[in-house]
Amino acid sequence: MTILVTGATGKVGRNVVTGLLAAGRTVRAISRSPQRAGLPEDVEVLRADLADPATLRAALDGVEKVFVFPTAPDGTRALTAAAAQAGVRHLVLLSSTVPGYPKPNPISDAHLAHERIVQDADLPWTFVRPGGFMSNDLAWAHSIRSAGVVRDPCPGSAVALIDERDIAAVAVAALLDDTHVGQAHEITGPRSLTPVQRTRILARAIERPLRFETLPAAEFTEVVTSQGYPPEYATAMLDFGEHFATTPGPVHPTVERITGRPPYTYADWAAHHTTHFR
Q1: Distance of alpha carbon 242 from alpha carbon 9, whole angstroms
Q2: pTM over 0.70
Q3: DSSP labels for 201-239?
Q4: Per residue in 206-229, pLDDT tens?
Q5: CA dist 84 to 54, 56, 68, 124, Å?
Q6: Per-residue model confidence as pLDDT tens digits over 2-30
C-alpha cells in the first residue's frame, strides 16, 4: 500500500513519514524541490505543486491513502479532487481544535474550510485536530538565547499544547486503520500550562534562569503581521489567550487511547529541544 504524505518536510510530516516507514508501508512525498527535501532514502519524493493538477495526478498514481497537510484552501481542493479521480480511498487531514472555539474568527474559519473541502470530496476521511503545538514555543528561542527572557502577550492562558510526535502518531494510526474513518480526533498534551509555567519548565531543561515578560498586544500584532499574516489573525490569537486565561483548555485522553502510550509532556518536549534554546 502506497501512502502519500503532503507537508512531509515539516515537523509533523517528517514524523508521519518515519512512523509509516517503521510500519513497513511504502511512502511517497511531494515537494516543489525534491532535491532539498532531505527525507529518508526509502521515501519516493516527486516534484508536485498543488497549483498544477497534472503533477498531482502523477503523484497520486497508485496511492491508496493521503496525509493532507493543509495550505491554502485552493490547494486542498485541488488535491482532494485529484485524489478522488485517482481512486484514493482515505484522506487523513491535519486540522485543529479551533473549529470548536465558541467565538468565530479567521483561524477557525480557515480550518473549517479545509474540513468542508475534504468532506465535499466524498471520500472516506479522518480529521486529526490537535490543539496548539509545543513547537510553536520555538519562537521564544532567540530571546531566550540572547536575553534569557520569554515574551508572550497572554501570561495566564492555560492550554494543553501537544508534541508534534504525538500528532504524527495519531495520524499514522489513522492511516493504518480504517476504523478511524469518519472520526474527528481532538488531541492534546497531558496538561494545560500557561506561558509562565512553560518558561519555568524550559529554564529547568536548559539549566539557566529565565524571566517572563508580558508582550504588549500592539507589539504582538506587529510581530504577527511582519510574518505575513493579516491583523485579524493576531486579534484571533489574542482572543484565544483571553478565553483560555479564564477557561483553561481541555485535556483529551485521545493520544493514549489511540497509540497505547501517554502523550509527551512539555518537559519531555523541552528536553528534546534544548539545543534550540541554549
Answers
A1: 33
A2: yes
A3: HHHHHHTS--EEEEPPHHHHHHHHHHTT--HHHHHHHHH
A4: 999 999 999 999 999 999 999 999
A5: 14, 11, 13, 10
A6: 999 999 999 999 999 999 999 999 999 99
Distances (CA, A) of 17 to 39, 246, 260: 8, 38, 20
How many whole angstroms separate alpha carbon 42 and alpha carbon 22?
Answer: 11
Closest CA to 191 of 247, 137, 253: 253
> Which CATH code, of 2.60.40.10, 3.30.1120.10, 3.40.50.2300, 3.40.50.720, is assigned to 2-133+163-188+250-264?
3.40.50.720
Cell numbers standing for residue 263 = 502523550
Joined grid coordinates for residue 69: 497537510
* H-helix segments, the chain: 11-22, 53-60, 73-86, 106-120, 141-147, 164-176, 195-206, 217-226, 231-246, 254-259, 266-272, 274-277
